[in-house]
Amino acid sequence: MARILLVQNDPLLCQAVSDYHKSCAADELECALTGSSAEHLLAAGGFEVAAISAILPDRSGIELAALAVNENIPVLMLSANSLVSRELERLHYQYLQHPFTLEALLCETKRVMHEAREHFSRVNASFSKMDASLAALQAEMAESHRLFDAIVARLGYWRR
Questions:
Q1: pTM score over 0.85
Q2: Is residue 155 part of a domain?
Q3: Which of 28, 54, 103, 137 shows its CA 20 to 30 Å from the CA of 21?
Q4: Do residues 153 and 159 lie in contact, with contact meaning Cβ atoms separated by under 8 Å?
Q5: How many whole angstroms separate alpha carbon 48 and alpha carbon 12?
Q6: Domain count of the chain?
Q7: Which range marks the domain in which residue 48 is found?
Q8: Gyration radius of the chain over CA positions
Q9: Is there a domain that residue 138 lies in?
Q10: CA-closest candidate to residue 101, choices 24, 2, 5
């Protein structure tokens, strides 16, 4: 079960999305009607994705998205304005343009979560490979030091 944050200043849309999620998905959806309330929820953590309206009454949705990203929470932006959508594209945010269906919102949210999980898995695999390479390099360095010490001892030079 995923925990999703929806930041949307329209209480009717929040209720409709919440009802739809309850009927179609096993996800837990939490709504925030303002950027400040969303900021507190993001700081508490535990969300697998945040769907954030680009325009909020008390702050920029883009600023809020940056906070979410800093908390390692993937973001899906929601935009009703074509100029804002172009800015979201320029900033490389994934977004959904209004009007959209509740099904489209659910699908895009799932896609963003899936992509984030895949990315996390690839990063973990890379770290595992780096750890293995580092261990092999440390073993080679130890062997090089051992050989150097043996050569120095055989030649009778001062040890380092």
A1: no
A2: no
A3: 54
A4: yes
A5: 23
A6: 1
A7: 3-120
A8: 25
A9: no
A10: 24
